[in-house]
Design a protein that fits this description.
By secondary structure, the chain is mainly β. The protein has no helices and 19 strands. The strands form two sheets. The protein has a 15-stranded antiparallel β-sheet that branches. It has a four-stranded antiparallel β-sheet with strand order 10-11-14-15, with no helix packed on it.
């Protein structure tokens, strides 16, 4: 059973600093990196799987594009609780198993409070936050293969903007635009007993247009994410009824194409090309711990990581339960 569940929630916090004009803010991708470190290539076993996942992103310092500190004090916090429903029939397709996934509802809450050190605006600050149901994640196609020393996945999913979004609002919990996500997952077993594994996950996302303020419309640029992990399974009991998996994980995320459309230029009433916005990138490393009960089709895992965009800690405490199917 696959204990890794895809987390689509994306709460975007953009700081606009004002001198004579606005500072161009980066556009964060939809895919929330940091979820697919270990077991990235494993598709859930045939039947129904329900997974509950709690994620907390918390940051108290802000870094620039190269990981250097920038003069902003405050905090950034995101909580999300999602419910994932996965169905894998026993019917074979191209010598593999098909999988279907729906993640909804996802309850999310986020907040941003920042004091910005800017000589041209000495008392500048920013704040925002909100809570509600985030966007819907639908994966109508996911194909998985289980080979002697490999587990592989290939899938396509959609982010459907059902979450609350209003141009210019500070309490949005939805992204406000449609996204298509082409994903791959690979797990290679270094040892014959499959206890040691090397894992790689990729997500390539393409976006639709999002309505902005001042009659502008922007299409966020394409983004690419890779997530990796090296893990080791240790039996906690001699009969292998209880397993502990530990590993080192990390991720990299880049914007790989320019934004399309237009953006407002501060409060001037003028607009400019969205392609002028700087590209987004982030890199992180951390650890992961999985507790697995194979006979009961139950797993629980926790991971933490730190990235170079924010001095940020990610905690995940999900669990999943699978019901074997006969169809």
């Amino acid at each position: 059973m696959n204990s890794r569940i895809k987390f689509p929630t994306s709460i975007i916090a953009c700081l606009l600093l004002a001198g004579a004009c606005s500072l161009l803010a980066q556009q964060k991708p939809q895919w929330m990196a940091g979820q697919m470190g270990l077991n990235a290539g494993i598709l859930s076993s045939p039947g129904f799987t329900y997974a509950n996942i709690d994620i907390n992103y918390d940051a108290g310092a802000f870094n620039g594009p190269k990981g250097n500190a920038i003069p902003v004090t405050g905090n950034y916090n995101v909580w999300a609780i999602e419910n994932a429903f996965i169905y894998v029939p026993r019917t074979k397709f191209l010598h593999g198993n098909l999988g279907f996934q729906l993640i909804f509802p996802t309850a999310a809450t986020g907040s941003l409070v920042a004091d910005i050190s800017n000589p041209q605006a000495p008392n500048l600050s920013a704040a925002g936050g909100g809570s509600g149901l985030a966007d819907l994640w639908l994966q109508p196609f996911n194909l998985g293969w289980r080979l002697k020393r490999w587990d592989l996945q290939l899938g396509d999913a959609f982010m459907i903007p059902t979450g609350r979004y209003s141009p210019g609002a500070t309490n949005n919990v939805g992204t406000g635009y449609f996204g298509n996500h082409l994903q791959t997952g690979t797990t290679y077993y270094v040892t014959k007993n499959k206890a040691t594994s090397v894992n790689l996950f990729t997500d390539w996302e393409v976006h639709g247009a999002r309505e902005g303020t001042s009659n502008t419309t922007k299409s966020p640029g394409h983004a690419f994410t890779d997530e990796w992990g090296i893990g080791q399974i240790l039996p906690l009991k001699k009969d292998f009824s209880r397993l502990l998996q530990i590993g080192v994980i990390g991720y990299d995320q880049w914007q790989i194409a320019a934004n399309g459309g237009t953006i407002p230029v501060g409060s001037t009433g003028l607009t400019g090309p969205a392609s002028l916005l700087p590209y987004y990138s982030v890199h992180a490393a951390g650890g992961q711990l999985n507790y697995i009960l194979p006979a009961k089709n139950f797993s629980f895992f926790s991971n933490t990581s730190m990235n170079t965009r924010l001095l940020l800690t990610l905690w995940e405490t999900p669990w999943s339960l699978a019901v074997p199917g006969r169809c």
